[in-house]
Amino acid sequence: MKNLPMKCVLLLFLLSAALQTNAQAERAVWSKEKANEWYQKVPWMAGANFYPANAINQLEMWQKETFDPVTINRDLGYAAGIGMTVMRVYLHHLAWETDKEGFLDRMKQYLAIADKHRIKTVFVIFDDCWNDTYKPGLQPAPKPGIHNSGWLQDPGKLLHTEPALISTLEAYVKAVLTAFKHDKRILLWDVYNEPGNSNYGNKSMPLLQKVFAWGRAVNPDQPLSAGVWNFRLKELTQYQLDNSDVITYHDYTNDDSHFRVADSLARVTGKPLICTEYMARTRGSFFKNILPGLKERKIIAINWGLVAGKSNTIYAWDTPMKDGGEPKVWFHDIFRQNGVPYDPAETALIKSLTGKR
To answer: Which sequence ranges form a coiled-coil region, renumbered to this chain (predicted)?
Structure first.
């Protein structure tokens, strides 16, 4: 460097300082202390994974032509009526890509409706579950008796056939997080639902790594997390645990199994837990045997399903009913579309635990 002109030396110095400043600005994973300090200020909450009953998937929920504030308001009203104060809501990059400003505006509309009902939101960014292809516009009708017949992966197999999509995904993630990085109505960002599902395995690792990096670059006030769900996917699970500000997880098993997992996660990580999926009646996961234990441990409880509708999640994953009849035991969901509970004893329990009068 001693032979470089002074102007070049100064330029290199300024560039080095800028790079160091940028590196410092990128968020580190929250420490156990920071995570627990944040959680101490958060009340215990119960809630559900949410999509309006008339939406078969994320695109039908978020596209301009089918975004339905009236039904969203109705269904969130049912949730608020039993004391639920948090909803987990899936996004989709294609809804943003086809209408960027409109998509962000509809997110604002959703948040305003949820806030009116005193409901916080967990937004989900990517997802490896169900159908691997998608297109904008009119979405398919439900297949009778088939669980989640129209639900969409994001980005699905398109990322593996068109690697250039990654630049669009980066722009999408940063645009959404930047728009809402200080929004107190958002509890946290769930950056990737069940990475490695649909037999992707470790093929999902690069996107998982990137979405955490993009999130840290934006540095939102809210924590970033990706819920652990399959401990056989060892590398993905470890990466999720190591890079989540707070720990989120899925468990559809009975109480003995569920709480062994939860207690182990709490002990190993030392961080607060949020259960972002549970409650599958035919698998032994009920409100009555899971929700009280979650409250006792101050684990925020978000079950799958609120109002039975086009998602067909009253049917079990592996037990289709092709005649479209009502199963004797609903797999998920709490309410019929007219607001009548599937099981009044369940809603009474939820109300008692949430303190809803």
So the answer is: none
Q: Which amino acid is at 212?
A: F
**Is position 10 within any domain?**
no
Give the count of domains, the chain: 1
Residue 15, pLDDT score: 42
pLDDT digits (tens, 9 = 90+) for 334-345: 999 999 999 999
Sign of CA dihedral 286, 288, 294, 300: positive
Tokens (6 digits) for 275: 């259960």
SS3 content of the chain, % helix, strand, coil (to 5): 45, 15, 40
Average pLDDT, the chain: 94
Cα–Cα distance for residue pair 332/5, rounded to 1 Å = 70
What is the percentage of the chain residues whose pLDDT exceeds 90? Answer: 92
- 62-95 pLDDT, tens digit per residue, is 999 999 999 999 999 999 999 999 999 999 999 9
Answer with the residue of higher pLDDT: 159 or 12. Answer: 159
Report the C-alpha gap between 292 and 258 in whole angstroms. Answer: 12
The answer to whether the CB of 32 falls within 8 A of the CB of 269 is yes
Cα 190 from Cα 200, distance rounded (Å): 19
The range of the structural domain enclosing residue 347 comes to 31-354
- Does residue 11 lie in a domain region? no
Report the sign of the C-alpha dihedral through residues 211, 154, 227, 236, in that order: negative
Evaluate whether residue 24 is within a structural domain: no
| CA-based max dimension of the chain | 83
> Is the whole-model pTM more than 0.85?
yes
* CATH number for the domain harbouring residue 109: 3.20.20.80
